[in-house]
Each structure stands twice: as C-alpha cells, then as structure tokens.
Amino acid sequence: MTPNAQILRDTALIERITANDSTALVELYDRHAIMLFSIIMRVLKEKNDSEHVLQSVFVDIWKNEEPYDSRLGNPAAWLSRCARMRAVERLRSKQLQKKSQDTTIDNVHELFTADFTDHPDHRPHLSAQQEEILIALTSLSSEQKVIVEFAFFRGYTYSDLAGHFSIPIETVKIRIRTTVSILRQKLRLHFS
C-alpha cells in the first residue's frame, strides 16, 4: 500500500471512529498498536505501564478527547504524538507519585523512631503532614508500633519477625495487617 493510500485509509478510519464505528477503532488499533507500543516503551521502559498507556490512547481516540487535525500531519504522526504525550504524562505522574511516597515514608520513619513527649514545647516544629502521621502513630499500641517498625523500616520478613518476637507467623501477619489497616484508615482522610 502506498503512503498516500495508508493516509487516506487511516483518515477514513478516524472519521468512522468519530461516527462511533467500533470496528474502525479495532482496525486502527491493529494497524498502529505495535508502532505506538514501541514509542511508549521507549519512554516508560516498563511493559505493564506501556500497555496501560497504549489502551488509554485508543480510549481517548474513541472518546474523541484529542480530535485529529489533518493540518498537523498525517494520522500516523498524530497517533505517535498522542502516544508519546500520554507516555510522558504517565512518566511524570509516576515520578511525582514516587517522590510523594518517598517523602511520606521518610516522614513516617522519622516519626516512628522519634521519642516525643506529650508536651508540645518538647516537639520539633512539624509540618501538617508530619503532625497527622504522628497522631495516627500515637493511636497504635507499642506492640503494633514495634512490629511495623521492624517489618517496614528494618526489613524483617514474616519469619524473621516470628523468630525475633517468638510468635507464630500467622500472628505476625495478623498484627501487621491490623496495624496497616489502622494507619491507612486514620491517614486516608488526610492523604487521599
């Protein structure tokens, strides 16, 4: 098929998609998915994320989120641009999310290991986020606090914890699950 014939065929498919023809979307996907997936993989370097982004590109096309404009290039170039933009957005989102999680984990560990008294003058200045984490941590029993510290901040496995505390592995799992559930519930209101 000549390049002009490919452009005409892709343009016709996009017009049919705009008219809610799902078979046209399937055909467009079949024609371009491999190329778009390789573009996305170059940005994200992770298969599952790349597959998710590829799917979202075609969902956006179906919903006509970013309409095709022939003045900006042929359909293949437009699809490539959409795929790359989506991949870059996903990469940035993951980087921001990781930075936020790292900050929260550092805050939690700092607060987990700190020895604060109940008197406010004895506490260092805490951010609002640190204050909320501290409040959630104070709701834990010392037993819960210790086992979670060993599991999450010292890298103990379930069997390590069972041996260290001389309790069955199932008890370790239940305590960790319960403690994480308590923290998640207390912090959900503040970090969701």
Give an overview of the whole structure.
It is a single chain. This protein has 192 residues and is mainly α. The chain folds into 2 domains: 3-97, RNA polymerase sigma factor, region 2, helix turn helix motif (Rna Polymerase Sigma Factor, Chain: A, Orthogonal Bundle), CATH 1.10.1740; 114-191, Arc Repressor Mutant, subunit A (Orthogonal Bundle), CATH 1.10.10.10. The protein has helices at residues 3-18, 22-44, 47-63, 75-113, 128-138, 142-153, 158-165, 169-191. The longest helix is centred in the middle third of the chain and has 39 residues, at 75-113.
Look at the helices and sheets and give the structural class.
mainly alpha
Report low-confidence residues grouped into runs of 5 or more: none
Which CATH first-tier class of the largest domain would you pick? Mainly Alpha
> Rg, please?
26 Å
CATH superfamily placement of the largest domain: RNA polymerase sigma factor, region 2, helix turn helix motif
The overall average pLDDT, rounded, is: 80
CATH 2nd-level architecture of the largest domain: Orthogonal Bundle
* Total individual domains: 2
What series of H and E elements makes up the topology? HHHHHHHH
Number of helices: 8
**Distance separating the two termini:** 51 Å
| β-strand number | 0
Strand content is under 5%
- The CATH topology of the largest domain is Rna Polymerase Sigma Factor, Chain: A
Outline: elongated
Helix content: over 70%
Largest sheet: none
